[in-house]
Amino acid sequence: MNVLQFTDNGIYCPAGGFYIDPWKPVDKAVITHAHSDHARWGSKHYLCQHDSVPLLQLRLGKDISVQGAGYGETTLINGVEVSFHPAGHMIGSAQVKVTVQGQTWVASGDYKTENDGISGEFEPVKCHTFITESTFGLPIYTWKPQQQLFSNIRDWISANQAAGKNSVLLAYSLGKAQRIIYNLKDHVQKFMVHGAIYNGHQVLLEHGWNLPPVERITPDTPKSAYADAVIIAPPSAAGSTWMRRFNPYALGVCSGWMQVRGNMRRQNADAGFAISDHADWPGLLAAVKATGAEQVLATHGFSSTFARYLTEQGLKAGEVKTQFGEEEEPVTENESEPS
């Protein structure tokens, strides 16, 4: 039985009449997390893990019809059992477990297997079929422990301060920016952020998340304010006129793609930190094994390579094309010059 199907609108559950992370407007959308490639505007009703509710409202509008559910809480949709389970990707992220007539499929959304301190611990879910992301589905992508990565970032910041340079870190505005801020909070005096990061951060603070405060950078921010701060901006701010105000500065890119050195050079970065909110190769393999799935379907990223490897290991595996991938909207000129 195909509990879930792949259609032009997205991942569809025929028995429940709903879609998971649809890329076109539908009547019923079940959302894994609030990144823009998974949570799109236009559907009539949304269901998500309850921590994602305010983030969906931020991204899609306060007037959307949205319902939240806790981790492990079963919701019946036309008699189909649906529940959310921690994915560890960002605050509110979840895998979606769907059970129809005793057959259980799990759509992972995006996930990582190392606990970052704020996004929750990834929870393997036993299932018959596992739909897994494979963004970094190559053996070269093996992350260093988070503690070591943040130690390297702290050392880089200290070196910049000694050289009289401002430290600018590029990170996705919703999710990774908060992960960085949270894990540097005991070592950084002040965080100053781009408007795209500020908006999401404030929503999380308003909903009780234990995050340090941040200051929004505006055209009126004096140059002296940057001297004792770490500056965080979205990746698309790189190379924009908005960046000039920080001179002299050193640029650090926080991305799993920094595992390949050439990517750092191509972004004209002074430092690259391979810190990702997606599972690395060992994490993907461990997650697949822990589900006990009889069938694995790989989506976005190195899906064909990952599926082929799983097949060689004796699993029934295949590749599925989706529209998931980019997590951030481009920064517009207005966002580049926040008021």
TrEMBL record:
EC number: 3.1.-.-
GO MF assignments: exonuclease activity; ligase activity
Biased composition regions of type Acidic residues, renumbered to the chain: 325-339
Database matches in InterPro entries: MBL, RibonucZ/Hydroxyglut_hydro, Xnuc_lig_assoc
Region (Disordered): 320-339
Keywords: Exonuclease, Hydrolase, Ligase, Nuclease
Record NCBIfam families: Xnuc_lig_assoc
PANTHER family given in the database record: BLL1145 PROTEIN, CLEAVAGE AND POLYADENYLATION SPECIFICITY FACTOR FAMILY MEMBER
Protein name as it appears in the record: Ligase-associated DNA damage response exonuclease
